[in-house]
Amino acid sequence: MPVGIFRVCLLVITAIINHPLFFPKENGTVLENTEEIIQKMKEREETLRLEQLRLEQEIADQEATQMALEKAALAVEESKEEKVRWDMWTALSMVIFLLIELWRQDFQEGNWQDIGGDEDDMAVLGKAFKGVAFPNKAVLASFYEKRILGTTGDMARMREMVEGFADDLLEALRSVCNRDADMEVEDCVGVGSMYENWRVRKPFVCDLIVPFAPPEPYCFRCQTWCSGDSFSPDEQGYGTIKVCRADEDVTGCICDKTKLGEDMLCLLHSQVNTTRPSSEVEDLLCFKNTQYLDADQVMKWFQIAVTKAWNRISHKYEFDLSFSLLDSPGALKIKFRSGKSIAFNLTPVVQYENSDVYFISHFPRSSLAADAPSSTHWFLTFAVYERRFIHLVSKMLPANACHVSCLQILSFLHGKQCSLTGPSGLTNYHLKTVMLHLLQARPSQDWAPENLEARLQDMLKFLERCLHEKKLYHFFIGNGKVPAELGFPIIFQRAEPLNLFRPFVLRRDIYRKTVDTFHEMLRNMSALINEYTVHIPLAHPNGIRKESL
Is residue 273 packed enough to be buried (19+ CB in 10 Å), middle (13-18) or exposed (0-12)? Predict the structure, then answer.
């Protein structure tokens, strides 16, 4: 019984203790703490989620940056490769260009005017030589001996007489000129066919050039078409001459281009030099309002000076002197009382630097050549170097070489044909240029006297090829094989070749007439040679054209 009561009491006590309402505050705290923990866990979870999002964003940004860097690096690499490829193509293009330029120079030097060394290389392009009866060696030798060889003595006597008179005339010219205002005239120089011993047709005409220089304190400064200045294609072969003071800077001083103050003084030029007097040289010989030498003014001055000089010495001579041709201001004629006359050309020129290239005021022109661009453009003549080259080559050729004989025969035939059918675009200067090219291309032994017939055919065939191509290069300009012994200026050797037949491209009428005259000459060649081999007629003065320098 007591045990049962104890158990009941123990059960009641246990029930009371474990009743929820017995500890209300403690149970509420536990509940509140649980909710707070849950809330904190949620906040923590939200924070972790935001942190995860931030980290994911940063990772994404880093990946984007990395990709951008990789793309940039790839682009740079590609640009480098592209640049390398472009540089490679540029270098390759430059190499190709240099190879082409070297080939062009080799072609010009090694195949100058496309001259071959063998007979097969001189093949005729057209039908000019088909059916042409070419004279044999015996006929050519007889023709040369009877018709041409006898004129050599006459040329020598005439040269001696003309040179002596010209020296006396120029000495008188110096005496009548004002040394302080007029040009200073130097000794004359003989050029052209008379001094190269190949002129054959009468009347004989001596060509003399007279270098002149300005008085002190002036000097000439020359510019050519190949010196880097601006010249048009039509001005190739020309140059200009500027009259300057000797103490004037070539590049020009700043005091000439700016206005200096009254209290400023140029250390290079004194006040005396800054005032340029208006001398007779500047007033008469320069083009209006320029410093460039005027060829027309120079010829007027020269004609007046020659007239005064002749008036001073005319009493010593038993002949008259006059200007013979209006279109050639330097053409003079000596008239003897017996009725005979001697013609010669006295032309003023300006020396190019320290060479024997000269600016010539009036160059004897043919129907092929155009007029000078202006009176301030001077034509360049290389006649002195041409004479020297022929003399130099002649020393290396066999005795009695046939090069001059070929040129004389060709000049005679062309002159006779022009007297029959009228003038053409060809001149004796073109014929001489052909000979100069062949002299450089052919070995020395090929010009032996027994090869006269073969070399004459070479010249005719070469001339026909040039006419067909409308291309005959000036011998010196652009020719890198000029012998060093001549001392020829390097600036002209490096220049572009000058085509003497360029006007044929523009003047088809003259070209057609020239080709027809050349073919007609070939057909009449045998008849003309045979005619003059049988008998030697008197010289015919009519229909003879003056040769160029």
Answer: middle
